[in-house]
Amino acid sequence: MGEEKTILLTQDAYDKLKEELAYREGQYRDEITKRIAAARAEGDLSENGGYQAAREEQGKNEGRINELIVKLRNAKIVEAPKAGTVGNGSLVTLELAGREMQYVLGARDMASVTEYDVLSEDSPIGKAIMGAKAGDEVSYQAPNGRTISVTIKEARPLE
Fold first, then answer.
1. Where does the Transcription elongation factor GreA/GreB N-terminal domain start and stop, copy by copy (predicted)?
2. Is the whole-model pTM more than 0.85?
3. Are residues 63 and 90 in the same domain?
4. SS3 breakdown of the chain: % helix, strand, coil, rounded to 5?
5. What is the SS3 string spanning 45-71?
6. In degrees rounded to 5, what are phi and psi of residue 43?
7. Nearest to 110 by CA among 81, 88, 87
């Protein structure tokens, strides 16, 4: 088994993952169990699509439960960064090739608490903008080898 990585989360993201875990371990697990029991009562399981689908869903749910347990165990709560500085949990407005785009910088699990696209702090662009301030221009090397420059237009804590 590989080394487990610390996951940096804001308190809000951590709380949302805890809520998801509680739902998946409780109500959702119970719903799946009832569907399996109902399908089992119909008889021949080898040709019962509802049974097969419910068992597959049960496997996915249990996998996500295990994933959430590990993430929450390895989570480190970080303070949302101050306005004007890019950090984990920042809502960042970037200008790239004349276009403005907004992203949240943080762990992929931040996607559960925001409608914005999430940039990993471990990605080339994430590493380049981490710690930058509004008005800074930073460069990073894209996976295709090109050097790309972006301007930080705004950075504020995700609310």
1. 7-77
2. no
3. no
4. 45, 25, 30
5. CCCCHHHHHHHHHHHHHHHHHHHHHHH
6. 115, -130
7. 88
Which residue in 134, 131, 61, 73 sits closest to 100, CA to CA?
134
Residues 8-45 have pLDDT tens digits of 777 877 888 899 999 999 999 999 999 999 888 887 77
* pLDDT band for position 3 (cuts 50, 70, 90): low
Both tokens of 99, joined, read: 């276009």
Judgement on whether residues 111 and 61 belong to the same structural domain of the protein = no
Query: Can you give the residue range of the structural domain that contains 56?
Result: 7-77
Show the CA angle centred on residue 116, arms to residues 114 and 122, nearest 5°: 95
Rg for the chain, CA atoms, rounded: 21
Q: Are residues 71 and 92 in the same domain?
A: no
